[in-house]
């Protein structure tokens, strides 16, 4: 079922969503100052291509230790991300998710957009793991 949902997601908009995240990551990487956020954008892009069967968690819980993205520096990077990009990316995913939840068939896809909205708010220090 997960494979079928991921294929439908990819064909019906997931490809465009993941491609947009990759484009954003490439733009961030070119600016040099955006490199810390570029890795997060690429990670979200991979998740956006096939979100079913995956969940988002703090990297600290997966690795069992703190790193640069899970400490104070990660918090500051997330604040900067939220101010300059996170709130409207999350708002876009939220609006798309609500629109998709208006139909019975779109509910699973809307729920994935809600996951992307949460991840879009503060992506530094997060990772994607199998559910």
Computed structural class: mainly alpha
User: Number of folding domains?
Assistant: 1
Strand order of the largest sheet: 1-2
Number of helices: 5
Number of beta-strand segments: 2
SSE run: HHEHHHE
How large, in whole angstroms, is the Cα Rg? 15 Å
Tertiary shape: globular
- N-to-C span: 14 Å
Share of β-strand residues: 5-15%
For the largest beta-sheet, the strand count, sense and barrel status come to:
2 strands, antiparallel
What is the overall pLDDT average? 92
Helix content: over 70%
Low-confidence stretches: none
Describe this entry's structure for a reader.
72% of the residues lie in helices and 8% in strands. It contains five helices and two strands. The chain has one domain (2-130). Helix 1 runs antiparallel to helix 2 (35-49) and helix 4 (72-101) packs antiparallel against helix 5. A two-stranded antiparallel sheet has the order 1-2. The longest helix is centred in the middle third of the chain and has 30 residues, at 72-101.
Protein topology:
Elements: H1 2-30, H2 35-49, E1 54-58, H3 59-63, H4 72-101, H5 107-121, E2 126-130
Antiparallel strand pairs: 1-2
Helix pairs in contact: 1-2, 4-5
Provide a brief overview of the structure.
The chain has helices at residues 2-30, 35-49, 59-63, 72-101, 107-121; strands spanning 54-58, 126-130. By secondary structure, the protein is mainly α.
């Amino acid at each position: 079922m997960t494979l079928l949902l991921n294929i439908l997601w990819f064909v019906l908009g997931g490809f465009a969503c993941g491609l947009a995240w990759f484009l954003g990551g490439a733009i961030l990487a070119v600016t040099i100052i955006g490199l810390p956020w570029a890795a997060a954008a690429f990670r979200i892009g991979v998740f956006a291509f096939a979100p079913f069967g995956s969940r988002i968690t703090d990297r600290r819980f997966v690795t069992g230790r703190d790193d640069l993205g899970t400490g104070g520096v990660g918090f500051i990077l997330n604040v900067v991300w939220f101010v300059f990009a996170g709130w409207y990316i999350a708002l876009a995913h939220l609006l798309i998710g609500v629109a998709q939840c208006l139909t019975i068939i779109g509910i699973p896809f809307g729920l994935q957009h809600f996951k992307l909205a949460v991840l879009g708010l503060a992506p530094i220090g997060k990772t994607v793991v199998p559910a």
